[in-house]
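User: For a reading group we're discussing how well predicted structures match intuition. Take Aminotransferase class III-fold pyridoxal phosphate-dependent enzyme. Before you show the prediction, I'll give you the sequence so everyone sees exactly what went in.
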Amino acid sequence: MNITELQQIDAAHHLHPFTNQADINRKGTRVISHAEGAYIFEANGHKLLDGMSGLWCCNLGYTQPRINQAIAAQLEELPYYNTFFQCTHPRAAELAKAISDRAPEHLNRVFFTNSGSEANDSVIRLIHRYWDGKGHPQRKAIIARQNAYHGSTIGGASLGGMGFMHEQFETLGNIHHIAQPYWYGANTELSPEEFGLYTARELEKKIQELGEDKVAAFIAEPIQGAGGVIIPPDSYWPEIQRICDRYGILLVVDEVIFGFGRTGHWFASQFYNISPDFIIFAKGVTNGFQPLGGVMVSDRVSDVLLSHSNDLAHGFTYSGHPVACAAALTTLEILSEGYIDKVRTELTQAMEDYWLALADHPLVGEARCKGLVGALELVKDKSSRERFAGNGRAGTVCRDSSLQSGLVMRATGDTMIIAPPFILDRSHVKDLTERAWQALDLAQ
Ligand code: PLP
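Assistant: Thanks. Here is the predicted 3D structure of Aminotransferase class III-fold pyridoxal phosphate-dependent enzyme, as structure tokens, for the group to look at:
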């Protein structure tokens, strides 16, 4: 079948996620035919350096024969069995231990899901169950942040703080959103550290407003990813931790993007020295080769969850799917062979040396990075931080010019994002930055 026929079939039958059908009708779809290492290839032969690791998930790139072999071997040994009703299988148990061994010391249990969205839905269930078990069933309010992304199921999207998503469905009740620590966007007189404290204290204000005996949990991404790689000032997380501890509310850190190495630590909670009650994970756990997500649970929460005398009435047919678990076990094994250290040292340094220099480009108001993730804020005027008219149009233009330059970047409004795979080296980061510069030139 030729590319045009394929695009026609796709346009006629495929309902795409996060896609405007009018764009498909106008411009057609980009058909990705194959991938190798850090590169993807379009069916028309165009080769692109994948600066987004797929959707922030193929952290070890696309060529990992050991993961493929683990998947194939598992299909032979046990292609499916469930983990309901007192059943387990070797890969689910091994993976739960392997993840616990790498997580902060006090998180030792894992509930498996198929995705990050399901994990965030599940954590709502676990939070309610925890407070019921503690004898405080009135504690049901969950505080989250504006512009957060926690997935697109009803629960995940309700926890998320994206207005354009909320406009399309009726959100769950009793979820309350506070400001994000977006210092550049706030264009404030406060220093970043003062602003970090100021936004963290929004949590305390919200707890007091709702009544501390009503609040169950606070959920946040360690660095907001899809919202534009919003890196909190250093003062932010210690203050959030202090407030959660002071009011005894559960802290959920959604590490779907940052878990498994992107900050140069297994989990960003370790990087920021946060002590969460739950960590949400997905994406990089299998290098994106199989769908798998989950909720890691702290010992103090597990103790309460396990004290209930009735069943936990929650789970998915594919919770702990053996093939996905096999892919994850091998992914963790490969990541353990120096990749996390490489992100923390060589690649973090390369990003600071090259990516941050993009701030000199006339279109860039701020270039920021942490570990192996980066963002550029496109502005019309650097000193006033005035944006371009057209709500993200500059970002769309830059995304298109980036593809012309052979680099996949993502646009979130007028913020350009990259999250490249860990298999790159310093020279690739230089190359990637040069392509980004070229894309910015073309977008001017
Ligand atoms: N949480 C965060 C922080 C995410 O970035 C995402 C996806 O991008 C999700 C949850 C949802 O994960 P999934 O798409 O696997 O449902």
